[in-house]
Amino acid sequence: MSNVHIEQCVRNSLKNYLKDLGESEPHNMYSMVINVVEKPLLEVVMEHADNNQSKAAQWLGLNRNTLRKKLLEHKLIT
């Protein structure tokens, strides 16, 4: 799967979201999109890394502490 395919999926979803809103104005779209994408990204990478936070952080290009913070925010660890 290429980046272009992922971008197109996001683009299509956002267009549908805005269409479904009708006359209502969107709010906090940036946070909404980041949260919706970030959680499954973390879930999949952690699973693929056998829950090894150091390995997952390296793959994601994040500091391990940053990854841990994000995992806590999304309630993926306790």
Protein described:
The protein is mainly α. The protein has a single domain, classed as Arc Repressor Mutant, subunit A (Orthogonal Bundle), CATH 1.10.10.60. Helix content is 73%, strand content 0%. It has four helices and no strands. The protein has helices at residues 3-21, 29-48, 53-60, 64-73. Helix 2 (29-48) packs across helix 3 and helix 3 (53-60) packs across helix 4 (64-73). It starts with a helix and ends in a 5-residue tail after the last helix. The relative contact order is 0.09. The model has no long low-confidence stretch (mean pLDDT 95).
Write the layout of secondary structure elements.
Layout (H helix, E strand, L loop, with lengths): L2 H19 L7 H20 L4 H8 L3 H10 L5
Helix pairs in contact: 2-3, 3-4
C-alpha geometry? elongated
Work out the count of structural domains. Answer: 1
Largest sheet: none
Note the gap between the termini.
32 Å
CATH class: Mainly Alpha
CATH homologous superfamily - what is it?
Homeodomain-like
Query: Could you tell me the number of beta strands?
Result: 0
CATH architecture field? Orthogonal Bundle
Strand content: under 5%
- The CATH topology is given as Arc Repressor Mutant, subunit A
